[in-house]
Amino acid sequence: MIKAKVPSYFKTRRNDLMAKNKGGVFVLPGNHHVFRNPDVEYPFRQESNAYYLTGYDEAESWIVITPSKFVMFVREKNAEREMWEGQRYGIDGAKSVFGADEAYPVSELKNKLPELLKSSDTVFYRTGMNSNNDSVVLEAMEKVRISLGRSGKSLQNIEDPGRFIGEMRIFKTAEEVELLKKACSISAHAQKAAMSFAKPGLNERDVAAYVDYELLRNGCERVGYGSIIAGGKNATCLHYRENNEPLKDGDLLLIDAAGEYDYYTSDITRTFPIGREFTKPQAKLYDALLKVQKETIAIIKPGIAYKSIHEFSVNALTDAFLSLGLLKGSKKEIVEKLEFKRFFPHGTSHLLGMDVHDVGLYMINGESRKLEAGMVFTIEPGIYIQPGDDTAPSEYKNLGMRIEDDILVTKTGYENLTQEAPKEREEIESLKK
Ligand code: GLY
Ligand code: MN
Ligand code: MN
Question: Which CATH architecture has domain 171-431?
Fold first, then answer.
């Protein structure tokens, strides 16, 4: 759908970005179409940094932001191509809808780029993502170097733009929080609906289709990542993606699925019985995991170190593993020697935003960064008893479970953005009646 005019916050972001660095020029290629088969493309999604700074969502574009202007290189309007592929904004749209100071056909990029780069000592560009793009930028920088001759001016540096853009994206503005809340609410609803929908006799694929349908029909443009719909022992595979096995009574179903709303994604996992109730061993493990997950969320407030989230979950889960008979020995040693990883092999949290594993530094000058209002991340402890693990108590064999919520740090504490997705055992079981 063609937009009439993008919100002014995109311009505010460009202004903030230029205020934060000293006179650099940012070169951001948009994503290209990728072919799956002849004439068949993978669904297009704009590169996140490019979208964050413009709201522009067409392929084959480049964005250049210099200290004095915002320049876009875009596909020209073309009636023949638009008949096949849909409307384009063209050069005029780049200016009138997206506020470009100057806009050119993307075929002009090689000619114009050296002049645009010349204005700055530092080119902010991410190398190594696409060798064709790298060639365009490096050739333009070479032209600038040659043009400097013996002027005595120093050569340009190339730096990763993530240092500045990542640091901006880590703190969500009010508008971004609204979009995240929408993604989270739709996703929580889809998770809840799936609890009622899933039953013995269906296939994981039925549930996958149903979850994606619920996400899309309620306003998400796409899923935020490939949905994980893992019944029974499949849940012990952390990134299970086949989603094609029958669902059995007595097994649990792990759903890690969420939607993206205007380029902001949620990330939710729930684990629940395929039949009507948790079995006793499932309930014991689930209750222990839920307690740890809730207690970990409760520590969130500005000022604590990001790494304390994982440390807290590891400690609390290790206690649970000891009392459930999954591990024996000294807690200190289990933690120090990472023995807990046998049942909890992944991290507890990651940043969340436009990307499901979002940008932003976790460490600053070698130290864990402190939580600040506006940060959003997941809290997602899990317990997995691998099918090949013959020494764990047999009642827990093949169980895999994870509970994942999305947490916004506020000035005084936190807000759980995904609390509408049920996770209390009684509430889940009541949805299965
Ligand atoms: N959905 C991927 C993750 O939880 O990190
Ligand atoms: Mn996650
Ligand atoms: Mn997830």
Answer: Alpha-Beta Complex (3.90)
